[in-house]
Amino acid sequence: MWLNTYDDLDAWVSSKNWPAVTCPTCQVGHLTVKRIDCVADPMPRAVFEQSGDPMDLAGVFSGALVCTLASCQATVAVAGDYSVDLDFDEVGNQDFQDFVRLRFAHPALPLIVPPERTPKPVADAIRTASSLVWADPSASANRLRVAVEDLLTAHRIPKTAAKKGGGRRPLTTHDRIDLFRAKQPDVADALEAVKWIGNSGSHESSLTTEDILDGAEILDLALRSLYDSSDAMLLRKVAVINKKKGVPRKKAGSQSR
After folding, report:
1. Which residue range is the domain that position 119 belongs to?
2. In this structure, is residue 138 part of a structural domain?
3. Which tens digits make up the pLDDT trace of 27-81?
4. What secondary structure does DSSP assign to 150-193, as a single string?
5. Most CB contacts within 10 A, which of 29, 147, 174, 190?
6. What is the DSSP string of 133-148?
7. Based on the structure, what is the number of domains in the chain?
């Protein structure tokens, strides 16, 4: 997980000091700045020419990040907002620096990497949410909600229920989560939290990138509970070691299977 690093991107950062974001291509190396070009808008530039104050400059930036892993070296195109502010170097001297705020990245920086057994529609919805999060957090929240709905469908939770007097009525996402709660109560609680964030994306325009990062982290918890058995296997090893009061040894002549 590298969502904590994304908190740094949800703000103005120095164009020279990007946080170490994991490469979306290899998911092993980290991205470093290859090129950043800042362009001031005409109006702020005109103000700067009169005031002489660099902090009046503002505009847009574009650039490229590159993976540090020698066997990958994938490039990510980035773009967003640009402004100038004071910054301090390592010894405390202050100077004007270019600051940027991310609004677009391609390939998208993944919010989470779903376990391999995650249903494809769920993974696709997460991928779309990742591509929208910096430019439109509300739209990204909607896609996380879609991921929840697709996950319920993958677990055969019905979309409709019988009506009194015949016919069928549609079930809300909340209704479906309640049905799923009988099978996986902890996971259902996590899905409900993601659903509430998705609801906010549908009805509010005030969602922040931080809100989406929280939702993605909660969804990641649910997916790992359902599709990643590594933690359970490790806990079983812990139980065996504690019971044996040490590492269990195989009998002589036994063969590994």
Report:
1. 111-229
2. yes
3. 889 999 999 999 999 988 898 888 888 888 999 999 999 999 999 999 999 999 9
4. HHHHHTT--SEEEPTTSSEEEPPHHHHHHHHHTT-HHHHHHHHH
5. 147
6. TTT-HHHHHHHHHHHH
7. 2
